[in-house]
Specification:
The chain is mostly helical. The chain contains five helices and no strands. It has a domain of about 55 residues: Irregular (30s Ribosomal Protein S18).
């Protein structure tokens, strides 16, 4: 004879709704920033890790066009010695 399967009680809310996360909104679009300046070190510093790596967009919530502009600005600041390649920020006297 086949075993009878136990029926699970029905949930009032499906799992798919419970597991959905709130969609991240691009902070640059929210603030109305069109161009990212390589001289704005306080802004750039928040998108660089302590090890000097650029934070990925899936973590920071930055949209793809702004992520490309952000990466270019960070690389320009690094080449001009405004940002460090390894420590994230160089203190200016």
């Amino acid at each position: 004879m086949a075993k009878k399967k136990k029926k699970r009680p029905m949930r009032s809310v499906p799992n798919s709704i419970l597991l959905r996360r709130k969609r991240k909104v691009c902070p640059f679009k929210e603030a109305g920033i069109e161009e990212i300046d390589y001289k704005d070190l306080e802004l750039l510093k928040s998108y660089v890790t302590e090890g000097g790596k650029i934070v990925p967009s899936r973590i920071s919530g930055v949209s793809a066009p702004y992520q490309r502009k952000l990466a270019i600005a960070i690389k320009r600041a690094r080449n001009l010695a405004l940002l460090s390649f390894t420590a994230g920020y160089i203190a200016q006297n």
